[in-house]
Design a protein that fits this description.
Helix content: 25-40%
Largest sheet: none
Structural class: mainly alpha
Number of helices: 3
Oligomer: single chain
Order of helices and strands: HHH
Low-confidence stretches: none
Mean pLDDT: 80
Shape: rod-shaped
């Protein structure tokens, strides 16, 4: 500060070291056409309103839901498909 500033009583603004509050990232989420996946993607918006230390719970929840959805897609629907015997192993004469 200069001598003129000191004599006039002017002070520098106080610096705040408080963390910034939660703020939306503004990431656009496009629909996938799969209702379950779309609902999980919308769940990510919950993290926009939480402090950073609350994001992990949302991310893990969404990850678990996406993993379960993919696992369900891999599961066979209906009875197993019979596999015909391979001619290479047919030892009849």
């Amino acid at each position: 500060m200069s001598a003129a500033d000191e004599s006039s009583g002017a002070r520098e603004p106080a610096v705040s070291y408080e963390p910034a509050g939660p703020a939306p990232l503004g990431v656009q989420r496009l629909p996938t056409g799969h209702a379950g996946v779309d609902a999980l993607m919308e769940r990510l918006a919950d993290a926009d309103h939480l402090p950073a230390d609350g994001h992990l719970e949302v991310y893990e929840d969404v990850h678990r839901g996406l993993r379960d959805t993919l696992t369900a897609l891999d599961a066979r629907q209906g009875p197993p498909v019979p596999v015909p015997p391979s001619p290479a192993y047919d030892h009849r004469s």
